[in-house]
Specification:
It is built from six helices and three strands. It has about 130 residues and is α+β, with helices and mostly antiparallel strands. A three-stranded mixed beta sheet has the order 1-3-2. The protein is globular.
Amino acid sequence: MTEVSQTQFERLVHRAVDAIPERFAKYLDNVAFLVADEPNAEQLRRNRPAHGRSVLLGLYEGIPLPARNNGYNGVTPDTITIFRRPHEMMARDASDLAVQVHQTVWHEVAHYFGLGHGAIHELEGRGGAKC
């Protein structure tokens, strides 16, 4: 377990967002990146952790880019929330924490682009979905 302050964790998330390659970042529109200590009960109820995981590290909530059409306007921003405490529980050290945050940000951005868990894990398995 690796504990960091809220400010330190926010910096890790900010760095991970800044590391998104421009070829993807230029399409990020109307999406806010948030940090929370843990998912709330409703987020957990609606989004059970996938693939045998017992924790929810991040969450994309919104209308994925491919589902948006010409009528998409005046919509509240999509959110990508990265949860601090689950990351701290899983991290071996500060370096591992930074890697995990980076991977979670990428994973949730992939959902924004319309990819499901199967496609994301397939790409990660081939080494192609990490930025």
